[in-house]
Amino acid sequence: xxxxxxxxxxxxxxxxxxxxxxxxxxxxxxxxxxxxxxxxxxxxxxxxxxxxxxxxxxxxxxxxxxxxxxxxxxxxxxxxxxxxxxxxxxxxxxxxxxxxxxxxxxxxxxxxxxxxxxxxxxxxxxxx
Length: 128
Prior knowledge:
Elements: H1 8-33, E1 40-46, H2 54-65, E2 76-82, H3 88-91, H4 97-106, H5 117-120
Antiparallel strand pairs: 1-2
C-alpha cells in the first residue's frame, strides 16, 4: 500500500486555520499586555519641626547677629512610590509596548527579555 492521498486544499485549509488561531491568540495577548500600569505616588506633608533647647538658642544667636537672614520653617514631605502596578516593559524604561516588542524583535531577544521578570514572579523562582 502506498501513501494516503491527501488533498492539497484540505492541507492548506488546516494550515490557514492553525495560523489564524495562533495570530488571534498572540494579538489578544499583545492587546492585554499593552495596557500600561499605573505608578502610584503618595505625598504626605508633616508640620515643620521647631528646634528645641540649644539648637533654638544657636539659631536665635545667628538670626540676631546677621542682617537679612530669616528663619522660615518648611513642611516636611514624605514621598511614597508604589510601582507594583507597572508592567515589566515599563520598569525597563519603555513608554509603549509596541516599541518594546519591536526592539526585542529587531535584536532577536526571545520572550521579550526576561531579565527583570524574577522581580514580578518570585513564587515561580526555583530556590535550591
